[in-house]
């Protein structure tokens, strides 16, 4: 049974969560970070498939002209950025490792809360943390604070378009909030 709201507990200064999505005929349940410092949700696909399979998937996205954007990690140098910009301008997308391709998923579930149709960008050349970013979080009403029962620092949220009674009750029970506006 799905929850009426998303709840994440802060552990080691990270909101680790369980992401569930369907990709290529398989259903994946994978750990991810809910990251308010990340602009766009990102799935480094080599966490789930082999390098060879990732290459096939990237070639298919390029062939199907799936929208993409450049995305850099904290360790990328100016030289890497310059080289990738040049590769893109030359149409050599397969060689560019900083691209992430936009994919729409029908039923994305985060910590047993259904986000519904969701866009997540896939990078085929990298490994690293799977990030749920502000592109998804900005569609949610989110509150963070100390759970008055457990003492844990938590984030709870609900899609703005589907504020539930269960979410309102959680705000009252967890944080002691008496009224939540729509």
What does this structure look like?
This protein is α+β, with helices and mostly antiparallel strands and 182 residues long. The chain is 22% helix and 38% strand. It contains four helices and ten strands. Strands 1, 2, 3, 4, 5, 6, 7, 8, 9 and 10 form a ten-stranded mixed beta sheet that branches. A hairpin with a 2-residue loop joins strand 6 (99-110) and strand 7. The chain starts with 5 loop residues before the first strand and ends in a 7-residue tail after the last helix.
Q: Give the SSE string.
A: EEEEHEHEEEHEEH
Cα Rg: 18 Å
Low-confidence segments, given as residue ranges, are none
How many beta-strand runs? 10
Query: Beta-strand percentage?
Result: 35-45%
Quick summary:
Strands 1, 2, 3, 4, 5, 6, 7, 8, 9 and 10 form a ten-stranded mixed β-sheet that branches. Helix content is about 20%, strand content about 40%.
Strand and helix map with partners:
Layout: E1 6-11, E2 14-23, E3 26-34, E4 42-44, H1 51-63, E5 68-70, H2 78-89, E6 99-110, E7 113-123, E8 131-132, H3 134-137, E9 140-146, E10 153-159, H4 165-175
Parallel strand pairs: 3-8, 4-7
Antiparallel strand pairs: 1-2, 1-10, 2-3, 2-6, 5-6, 6-7, 9-10
């Amino acid at each position: 049974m799905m929850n009426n709201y998303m709840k994440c507990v802060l552990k080691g200064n990270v909101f680790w969560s369980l992401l569930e999505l369907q990709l290529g005929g398989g259903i994946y349940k994978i750990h991810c970070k809910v990251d308010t410092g990340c602009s766009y949700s990102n799935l480094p696909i080599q966490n789930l498939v082999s390098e060879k399979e990732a290459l096939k998937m990237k070639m298919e996205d390029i062939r199907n002209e799936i929208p993409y954007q450049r995305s850099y990690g904290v360790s990328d140098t100016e030289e890497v950025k310059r080289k990738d910009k040049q590769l893109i301008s030359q149409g050599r997308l397969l060689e560019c490792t900083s691209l992430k391709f936009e994919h729409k998923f029908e039923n994305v579930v985060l910590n047993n809360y259904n986000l519904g149709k969701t866009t997540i960008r896939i990078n085929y050349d990298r490994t690293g943390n799977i990030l749920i970013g502000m592109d998804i979080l900005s569609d949610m009403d989110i509150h963070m604070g100390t759970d008055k029962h457990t003492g844990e620092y938590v984030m709870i949220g609900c899609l703005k378009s589907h504020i539930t009674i269960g979410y309102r009750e959680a705000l009252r029970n967890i944080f002691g909030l008496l009224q939540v506006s729509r």
